Amino acid sequence: AQTVTQSQPEMSVQEAETVTLSCTYDTSESDYYLFWYKQPPSRQMILVIRQEAYKQQNATENRFSVNFQKAAKSFSLKISDSQLGDAAMYFCAYSRPQGGSEKLVFGKGTKLTVNP
Amino acid sequence: GAVVSQHPSRVICKSGTSVKIECRSLDFQATTMFWYRQFPKQSLMLMATSNEGSKATYEQGVEKDKFLINHASLTLSTLTVTSAHPEDSSFYICSASPEFYWGETQYFGPGTRLLVL
Q: Which chain A residue shows the shortest CA-CA distance from B96?
């Protein structure tokens, strides 16, 4: 069974600085998707970034980028120029490609605090 | 695009009553929707996979007679908590992915906070 591990229960960063959140996963599949979701205090889950395993290029979305190391099964999230609004729980997730019918496997989450 | 709504956003009920939560995909069709439960400061726990036109698939340990799921159409799934008790108090979240979309991105509803007195 696939598993996702987030080893940092909590992280903090100064506003405008850079922070990296770690995620490792275990799977025997060669084709899959990885995600980072953000859950702010409102508890609405928001997609931050998505990576297809078959793509070697790391995904980026504005201030958010990932370091995808397929052989090491590592998928870290880097947040640059951190803003107060980035404070939230961040969940790493995995999915196999099944046309929208496959469940997500979540890590336990990392709580990010942004200090002014 | 890809908006999922949930109704109600919060509900308070008496022990022993049943509560229905609706999950709607507003601008796409979804053959499959997912229901999660989340306790404070914890990750999302998948309860069941809701399949349009067929029975839901429940995760191990989830009581199917307690948590009734009906996927009435390609845009609506409902979760009914039957004979609710205080231990059912939690935050319930649904998600869906557009039909035939192989990007696998799940879009989440805003959640429903259930409090059983």
A: A100
Beta bridge partners of B37: B45, B92
- Dist. CA A47–CA B17, nearest whole Å: 35
pLDDT in tens, B82-98: 999 999 999 999 999 88
Taking the alpha carbons of A27, A32, A37, A43 in that order, is the dihedral positive or negative? negative
Q: Is residue B101 over pLDDT 70?
A: no
- Which residue type sits at A5? T
Interface test with B, best of A5, A37, A96, A103 (most B CBs within 10 A): A103
Instruction: Please check whether residue B61 touches A, CB under 8 A.
Output: no
Query: Using CA atoms, how far apart are residues B96 and B104, in angstroms rounded to an integer?
Result: 9
Q: Centre a 10 Å sphere on the Cβ of residue A35 and count the other Cβ atoms it contains.
A: 24
Instruction: Specify the amino acid at residue A50.
Output: R
A–B CB contacts, 8 A cutoff, strictly below: 69
Q: Tell me, what's the pLDDT at B30?
A: 87
Residue A76 has pLDDT above 90, yes or no: yes
